[in-house]
Design goal:
single chain; about 220 residues; Arc Repressor Mutant, subunit A; 3 domains; about 35% helix
């Protein structure tokens, strides 16, 4: 946020609201960053705030043991989530750069968190769905509907959605010429084609339910 705020800066109050902590905690963390060598500037008074000197960079990301375990827990509890394997690999990278004391504390705390998850779906299918979404290419799937009918369809991926404990591929079905929700657990086979998507957007799906939000929502 300091980097994104640019020359305008951002107030301690705004930072506190964004990260749901107290202003005192924000100022403590800013002091810690400054003491670590980060070139942070501050501007007092109305309209003032904090920012990062132009062209500067922050020190490597560090996590508390609880933050590291929170990331591990989130990924372990959702193995069917899109890009879960990449998330797990990212967490391993973070763990590798933590200082030995923090890593040992995180490892000890992680043993105190148990998750019970159902067997995950085919890695090959999930990988194909993830690739098609990221590269916006048509994906060919063999899909068995709730009534037991199996069809092969070409789908233009628009978004992944999780509801009632299930993940869905939401996309433009070229067979039905309409937007459709496909339960990932009912996709029996998937292959990414060389065809580019034609440009259907998330706005065609509609607004997310009141209790749903895009995963980027915490950063706004």
């Amino acid at each position: 946020m300091l980097r994104r705020s640019g020359v305008r800066g951002v107030s301690a109050e705004r930072l506190a609201r964004e990260f749901e902590v107290s202003v005192r905690t924000v100022k403590r963390d800013l002091d810690a960053l400054e003491n670590s060598g980060a070139p942070i500037w501050s501007r007092p008074g109305p309209g003032g705030g904090y920012g990062l000197a132009k062209g500067a960079s922050l020190p490597p990301v560090t996590l508390s043991p609880a933050q590291a375990v929170a990331l591990m827990t989130a990924v372990s509890a959702a193995p069917d989530a899109p890009y879960a394997d990449l998330a797990a690999a990212g967490i391993r990278k973070i763990m590798d750069v933590l200082d030995p004391r923090t890593r040992a504390q995180a490892d000890e705390l992680a043993h105190r968190v148990w998750v019970n998850v159902l067997p995950s779906s085919s890695r090959a299918i999930r990988s194909a769905l993830e690739e098609a979404m990221a590269e916006q290419r048509v994906i060919r799937i063999r899909y068995t509907s709730r009534d037991g009918t199996t069809t092969t369809r070409d789908v233009e991926p628009v978004l992944f959605a999780s509801t009632s404990g299930r993940w869905y591929l939401v996309g433009w079905c070229r067979l039905r010429d309409a937007m459709r929700w496909f339960a990932a657990s009912r996709i029996e086979w998937a292959s990414v084609t060389k065809m580019a998507c034609s440009g259907h957007t998330i706005h065609e799906v509609g607004e997310p339910p009141e209790n749903a939000r895009p995963v980027h929502g915490w950063g706004e």
